[in-house]
Design brief:
269 residues; alpha/beta; Rossmann fold; ProC C-terminal domain-like fold; 2 domains; 12 helices; 8 strands; 54% helix; elongated; binds NADP nicotinamide-adenine-dinucleotide phosphate
Length: 269
Amino acid sequence: MYNGISIIGAGIIGGAMARILARKKIINKIIATRRNLDKIRDLEELGVIITSDNVWAVENSDVAIISVKPNALANVLKEIRDVARGKLLISVVAGVPINLIEDMLPGTRIVRAMPNIAVLVGESFTVYSFSKNVTDEDREFTDILFSSMGVAIEVEEKYINAYTGLTGSGPAYMSTFIEAMVYAGLKVGIPRDIALLGATQVAIGTGKLIRDGGMHYAKIKEMVVTPAGTTIEGLFELEEIGLRRGLMKAVYAATQRAEDISKNKNNTD
Ligand SMILES: NC(=O)c1ccc[n+]([C@@H]2O[C@H](COP(=O)([O-])OP(=O)(O)OC[C@H]3O[C@@H](n4cnc5c(N)ncnc54)[C@H](OP(=O)(O)O)[C@@H]3O)[C@@H](O)[C@H]2O)c1
């Protein structure tokens, strides 16, 4: 299989990927790069090699994951252009299409992927697409790689910006929902730590009922709402603030932002 993986830009998501790959030991060597190495010293304890030398990192690995911000991408690709030739390059950079990377890195096999921050606990939802020149081994490795971080599926590239808005940003929406649940618990007198435990367990439990229990969300609501009961009072209020419309608008706006980055508009993300 492959000899070594480098993670170029080991910040929030790159660092999370380095940590889980080191823990799961799915590859023999992991190299992580960023300019400020003091921020990733802890990775060394997990056996990860850390360096600020992107060229050395890519030279010494068969696979490179690029996890810098969109506005830093062009410089990084220019830097590794010669050493990336013939390698598998996986970009998790929001909004940046495969053809743009292909233009900048001729002779490289490319994966465009969108994980989310739940990589940290091995519960990411990751989508990925391939350039035309990838091998069967690249496809298999990509699936093994992202499946080690959670659930992973191949999708058509034209949908990746939409997944970026839905599941890439999803943990931020869910965190906002859970924060609101905790505040709601405080409002009705529940201690903060128990409100947090309750809110997160409700999110996990409901997710499992739907995904693993095969239960439709409408059915769950039917089972919880009773005539003149408590839940219908709560749902009645939610209807007024338009939670569903708000979420739909949020995902739409995030998707549009990814589309703007794809068109190279105002890449300050
Ligand atoms: N955060 C998420 O949940 C998430 C999820 C999916 C995808 N993404 C995508 O992942 C990318 C990174 O996002 P992030 O949230 O992880 O941002 P981040 O924490 O800012 O990570 C980017 C890292 O790149 C490093 N970097 C910048 N220039 C570099 C260079 N020339 N060479 C090597 N390293 C360099 C920075 O460290 P130094 O300044 O020390 O060099 C920084 O730690 C973005 O494109 C984003 O769209 C993020």
